Amino acid sequence: MCGRFSLGVDPDSLMDELDWVTATPDVKRAHPELWRPRYNVAPGQLALVIGRREERPPSLAWMKWGLVPHWAKAEGRRPINARVETLRERPMFRESFLARRCLVPIDGWYEWSGEGDGRHASWLHAPDDQLLTLGAIWDRWRAPDGVVRFTFAVVTAASVGEAARLHDRMPLVVAPADRHGWLAPGPYEGSLVPDGRAVARPVGRFVNDVHHDDPTCRDEVA
How many CB atoms lie within 10 A of CB 194? Predict the structure, then answer.
């Protein structure tokens, strides 16, 4: 599964690396307090997402983590994950998977394993510390008060590689070669198996608190 992630780079540096993604000044101005490295992004929070609308180039946007379909009468239960096995079947996900796929740029995600007092977190990241992109779906929902909200859910799949020893599910890490295909309008025919190169670093309990958001979240412990 995927319940927390980090993007511990300056968004301006992110734009240098993702030179094929546009970012309007409005994105930075919309939430200046969040235009910084983030180390503990949690469900219900805003995150930077790479999306595409029709034939426009991919661009950065702010979306809230927890999908609300456009046809919902109320926010209700907001799934943070969408299982890859049911993307084409469940009404909650089907239309978004066909027409509203997006990517979530991260430099790692957290996974918890163990039981009781022995339960601990690990931070999974690329072995070369390069940027990762998670496959996700998004939707646009208009609240009863007229406010429009953009929300997303991270796609998950059966774990591969080192992630499999921590949990049976992991986010769909989209390889660089598949990013444009994932964002392209229409049906997706690319790989739905995660890029399995991620390595795990055991971290302390500091990350357990969603109010903690600094590099200490990723400090390695023995």
Answer: 26
